[in-house]
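Input chain follows. Return structure tokens only.
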Amino acid sequence: MKYLLLTFSLLLTHLLAGPGDKPADSRFTKITLDDDLNEPMELAIADDGMVYYIERVGYINSFDPKTNIKRRITKLDIRATGEDGLLGLALDPNFLQNHWLYLYYGDMVMQGDSYTNVLSRFELTETGLTNRVDMLRVPLLHEGVSHSAGSLAFDAQANLFLSTGDNTNPFESDGYSPSDDRPGRIRFDALKSAGNTNDLRGKILRIHPEDDGSYTIPEGNLFKPGQEKTRPEIYVMGNRNPFQIAVDQRNGYLYWGEVGPDAGEDGPTRGPRGHDEINQARQAGYFGWPLFVGDNKPYYKYDFEAKKSGELFDPQHPVNFSRNNTGLKDLPPAQKAFIWYPYAESPEFPELGKGGRNAMAGPVYYYDDYQASPGKFPKYFDEKLFIYDWMRGVVTTVTMDKNHNYQSMERFLPDQEFNHPVDMAFDRQGELYVLEYGTYWRAKNTDAKLVRIEYNEGNRAPVAKISADKTVGAAPLKVRFSAQGSFDYDKADSLRYEWSFTANGIQAKGVSPIFTFAKPGNYKARVRVIDSEGKSAENTLTIRVGNEPPAVTVDWGGNRSFYFGKNPVAYKVKVQDREDKIIPPGLIRTWFHYLPEGEDVAGLMATGEMTFKGRTLIEQSDCRACHGLDAASVGPSYRAIAQRYDDDAVDKLADKIIQGGVGVWTQEHAMSAHPQLIKEDAAEMVRYILSLDQSSPQMPPQGSVTTEQALGNYVLMARYTDSGGLLGQELLRLRPAKFPASEVDSFSKGVSKRSNNGGGFTMCFNEDKAWLKFNQLDLTGLKKVTTDDFTPKLVGILEFRIDSPTGLVIAQVPVKGEGVEVISAPLQALSGVHDLYVVFEETSGGINIWKRLDLRTIEFSR
């Protein structure tokens, strides 16, 4: 009864809701429904709530939100080569009665001397798909071309839209207009397709399917049936790669994302830099490609033989001059894009940011068109268009005026990760479903998902966190799990925890259970966090049982935290592995690196990666979509790049990252330009990649090294990857014996970090018994400590304590209140590694935020 009253209250709130303020992001919950997909492409939701979604390799799936059960319906025998495959899915408007669905895919069977992509209708039965009817074929050039598109969508009049790519190689036109019509160059000429009124490629087609499997042409397409040198199916032409489309079900307006060309900068004699577009078609029209881009920015007519430019194309009177053109020469006037943006920050639409580009269009949300339900999106999003960028991983809502003209935009859930969103749709409950393609392009990604985003008007679902003390190891493997960190936005709620480790049933309760995995295998541990009203959230963690990670240790002949001048130090790397009884010395990788002041040593230590800044820049960019560490995706793996080039190539490769290009590794895919990067940052990215060469000369696992510098840090890193692919490593960070106090790992409330006007930082004590903490310092053999501080008034003692702010005092350095003071004190003899606390005990002076002790440096001596 209590739940029914709550539901009724929520429904009444929805019915009476006005646009109101923007809802808090915390009121949206993202729920994973399926994962480990193989290139998910498009989804469609039936009126009964069943979700259907496809994978490019041919899989067709369903997900029932009532039972949370996924079903693999079938795998079609299709051609999934290049960018073709199973690309488009739509459900018939009468799907619940006739069970028809429409698929667009690469046909395995050649038609004459060419392959085709085919639009087919199937009937869904309990055992799979049957009654295939081929409705429309798009002949293709097959080798050495790009851009297939392939999205499907119905409008409210049961007209079916199909997007097709320009089937053109974009890589020999320098990222500008691919309009090379020389003999034998048809693959490099988009005027043969996108600009051709008599060709189905580079278009968005509109047809009306009939019950017998044929189709008719709706009124209002770009060309009338029977018009010479035209195809009547064409609704929109002048498309490069209109990857995802959506139709406003109220007014019939068509929206799509247009993936644009690659030029990173405007070419003075070629034309505009590359832009992606979000387009709105209120009626049939020509949208410019390959003669225009963005808001009708014109290209120059270019003579590819003489490499000379002629006049700019005229958007009011575009002409298809290509000898490959089989259609009309004079084209309709070009239409401007609705939204357009380059790699760099857009002057017109700065909210879209900068970086890689893959524009896609989602639905327009109409609040009153969806059933009242607890998870329904609020009225704030009424009449907003949802757009998204696959490469940038962001979703944006577009506000339009009463005439559906652009007004403004804002990020949707900016703190929520969208891992390359590839399609989205609202169900009848007003909840948003999203397909996430996963990390790498043209790869099966374990993080490719179907997710649902729900809105919580009242009681919000908790946030579930999961961790474990170990995630890999040999059987039997005893693991302590934890859901610590889980929380609920509604503070009155108390949380309950239910766990499953090897099956769907509940196998443990509580926040920190222990479970032993008896047999080898990969297990998905799952925690369900439930609030007092029954609202729940889940999280999972994969546990791999069957191989113990190797243990790597370094015997180090000196102090393990500090170095003292130019002294040689002996070392020896030791590896123990439960499965690998013999450890070949050549497989132990050892580095000894010097890092100047200013390098992010903490980040390096946490990740185990050298040249940490470059790694961070790569993680923040779009590089991961096309490159893996060890596995090739669209581009080569980082390790393959590292093995191909040496350090002399840093400058050249940095320019390549900024400018983009094609031809070194493949002619099929270009590397996107990144003009938003400065040269220094691109060089850091290259240095990180080149550091990954496992075949490059390494230090031997036993020997000696010498510390030559007086400032900065040294890092010794030793690694071994066992035969099961698990990595063991040890990292030693050596800092100079005299170092800035600002290198502190943490500090108490009564301490602040203050900039010295460009000269580093000072740690400022402004409360009695305030402290600094330095994590895990080796105090073996240290005999004296010296501090450099400043205070004109305060008198007291800087106490050096171990393991806690009230732990054993090992040194006391007096503070005399005489301005600049460099004072030493003896250290109690200790051995081993300890957390070190520096605590200020005030004697007199009246410490406060204005009267403080500034600690500049600390120095240890042997």
